[in-house]
Amino acid sequence: MEPLHAQTVVLASPATKIRLSLLSTAMVDALGGPAEFADRFSFPTISSMIPNKTFGLPPGVWTDDTSMALCLAHSLSTSKLDSNQPSPQGAGGFDEHDQMAAYTSWRRNGFLSAIGRCFDVGNTVSGTISLYSRCDPQVAFERIKEAYEDESYSGNGSLMRVIPIGLAYWPDEQKAREYARRSSVTTHPNEMCQEACEVWTGVISMIMKAACSSSDERSKLSKLRVLEYFAKFPYKVPKLRDALSLPSTAPETPEAEDEKERHYRSYHPIMKLVTETESLFSHRQNKLKPHAPTGKQLPSSGYVLHTLVAALYSFLATSTFEEGAIFAVNLGDDADTVGAVYGGLAGCWYAHEQAALPQGASLFWSKRVEDWKNTLVEREMVEQVAEKLVSFSARLVAEQ
């Protein structure tokens, strides 16, 4: 694998990053749907869109992960905090009640679903939507927090949909992080869920700034710096800190990039596992077959911590969008959600205008990724929501 410090963000316009990050979320979600609930190594390697036998769906159907991300993107792009006072700048803004209205419409009526109905929903999302609908809006979120803030409700339902916030509010990292936390509270008020959404959104904001800026700093954003962001984040949740930071017993981190990377490979929990797994599979001939750790070493369950770590591992252990996507979905268990979370991050990192580079030189576009795009069900729906988010984000940038 190419060193992390040598892998730098692919440059593109904000509009391209937003469009392709949302498209990537949907593509890898749909790719992973058939492997959901399956044990790792118990099924043939998935590298193309195949039917989802669990729900009786044809190839290319994305799941609740993408539907909820699209609902959030739609709300950010179209909500009006006060419908009686239209904004002169146009619609759009962060409104938790509008977000819940979109989620409720998806749950009940199939709004922004690939097949016109909600065919799968997590228990916590279902419970909070139901509770919200029974409460006075003025107290609904207080009731949700009282009922669902325990760690037993720390599923991945808010992390899986959070990508639009970093894509829209990328120029202001602090605001993006605040909104990411608030977006989690609507259905997942547990502190771990909030902090997972916050750190993930902070990274998306950093990537967008580097990829879309005219500054020379953009070419210096490497995957090693992404790892450092996670490692140095001021976590309040010990389990996130233990999984994503260097241990307190580690020696001081060197300054030189190559030495720093060796340091992370020796002491960081994710990179230690990457290095150990690479050494076991160094003789591997079939580059398509994922060289994954065991499910015990790298869980890919619906627990938000497991999903975040598995998606980040998929990004750090691979060097192209396609390779990481195939790795992520073949982890099994909550494969569609790990795939969707990976897809949003990796799409933001690797994506560029399709004609900007020849296919063989692209880290994003490949024959297989083209096939995923062409097989994706209701791709136009994803693209339409993305265009609204592009316009909304552009207005935010113009107003700064």
TrEMBL record:
InterPro entries: ADP-ribosylglycohydrolase, Ribosyl_crysJ1, Ribosyl_crysJ1_sf. This is ADP-ribosylhydrolase ARH3. Mg(2+) binds at T63, D64, D65, D334, D336, T337. The keyword Transmembrane helix does not apply. Transmembrane segments: none annotated. The keyword Metal-binding applies. SUPFAM superfamilies: ADP-ribosylglycohydrolase. It comes from Marasmius oreades (fairy-ring Marasmius). Its cofactor is Mg(2+). GO terms for molecular function: metal ion binding; poly(ADP-ribose) glycohydrolase activity. Its EC number is 3.2.1.143. It catalyses: alpha-NAD(+) + H2O = ADP-D-ribose + nicotinamide + H(+). Binds 2 magnesium ions per subunit. Belongs to the ADP-ribosylglycohydrolase family. Keywords: Hydrolase, Magnesium, Metal-binding.
